[in-house]
Specification:
The chain is an all-beta fold. Strands 2, 4, 5, 6, 9, 10 and 11 form a 7-stranded mixed β-sheet that branches. A 4-stranded antiparallel β-sheet has the order 1-3-8-7, with no helix packed on it. It contains no helices and 11 strands. Helix content is 0%, strand content 51%.
Length: 123
C-alpha cells in the first residue's frame, strides 16, 4: 500500500507559478513511476506529466515548456513546478503511483492516488 498526500495548490493569477508536492509513504517510492493528473469540473481526469523510475519525464502537449515534474527519492516526494499558468489549468490536481515497468498516460494504470489539491488560475 502507498499513501500519497498532495500540497501546494491555491489561487494564482494568470502568468503566475505554483509548485505542487506529493509526499509518499508505505512502500519503496523509487520503484514507482509517479504521475500528475488533473480534473476540471465536468471533465474527465486527464494526464499531465509522469516521471519514471529512471527519471525520464513526459508531458501532455498543452503543458510542455511550462510545467516540470521532478522527484526526490531521498524524501519520497514528487513535485510539479507550474509556470505561466493559464485559466485553462484550473483543476484539482492528483498525484498517482504506478508500479511495474514502463509508464502510462492512462488513469487506470495507476494503483494509488492522493486526495487532490485545488489549483485555480484567475484571468
Amino acid at each position: 500500500q502507498v499513501q500519497l498526500v498532495e500540497s501546494g495548490g491555491g489561487l494564482v493569477q494568470a502568468g503566475g507559478s505554483l509548485r505542487l508536492s506529493c509526499a509518499a509513504s508505505g512502500r519503496t517510492f523509487s520503484r514507482y513511476a509517479m504521475g500528475w493528473f488533473r480534473q476540471a469540473p465536468g471533465k474527465e481526469r486527464e494526464f499531465v506529466a509522469v516521471i519514471t523510475k529512471g527519471r525520464n519525464t513526459y508531458y501532455r502537449d498543452s503543458v510542455k515548456g511550462r510545467f516540470a515534474i521532478s522527484r526526490d527519492n531521498a524524501v519520497d516526494t514528487v513535485y510539479l513546478q507550474m509556470s505561466s499558468l493559464e485559466p485553462e489549468d484550473t483543476a484539482i490536481y492528483y498525484c498517482a503511483a504506478q508500479y511495474g515497468s514502463g509508464w502510462s498516460r492512462a488513469v487506470n494504470a495507476y494503483q494509488y492516488w492522493g486526495q487532490g489539491t485545488q489549483v485555480t488560475v484567475s484571468s
